[in-house]
Amino acid sequence: MKDILTLGIETSCDETSVAVIKNGREILSNIIDTQIPIHEKYGGVVPEIASRNHVEAISRVTKLALKEAGIEFKDIDAITPTYGPGLVGALLVGVSYAKALSFAINKPLVGVNHIQGHIAANYLTYSELRPPFICLLISGGNTQIVHVKDYTEFEILGKTRDDAIGEAFDKVARVVGLEYPGGPKVDKLAKEGEANIKLPKTHFENSLDFSFSGIKTAVININHNNKDIKKADLCASFEKAVTEVLIENVQKALKQTNAKSLAIAGGVSANSYIRNEILKLQNENLKIYMPDMKLCTDNAAMIASAGYYNFISGKRDNLDLNAIPNLKL
Question: Which pTM was predicted?
Answer without folding.
Answer: 0.94
